[in-house]
Design brief:
Blueprint lengths: L1 E2 L2 E2 L2 H27 L2 H25 L1
Antiparallel strand pairs: 1-2
Helix pairs in contact: 1-2
Length: 64
């Protein structure tokens, strides 16, 4: 898939989309954990959100 000079292979597309879905899921989990007051759960969800976002950003920037 090539759009705007960005060449994404199938593996890049799968990794980026999986990482974005994971980041969105952990963002939801973070909000739910904060609302319920589960300190350990929202800290873990925040770390997982940052890791998934970092993976998506690295794979996207690697394709540029």
């Amino acid at each position: 898939m090539e759009a705007g000079g960005v060449n994404l292979t199938l593996q890049d597309t799968v990794v980026i989309s999986t990482a974005l879905v994971g980041a969105i899921g952990n963002a939801y989990l973070f909000v739910a954990a904060v609302h319920d007051g589960h300190r350990g759960l929202y800290r873990a969800a925040a770390v997982a959100f940052l890791v998934f976002s970092l993976v998506a950003a690295v794979f996207f920037l690697r394709t540029l």
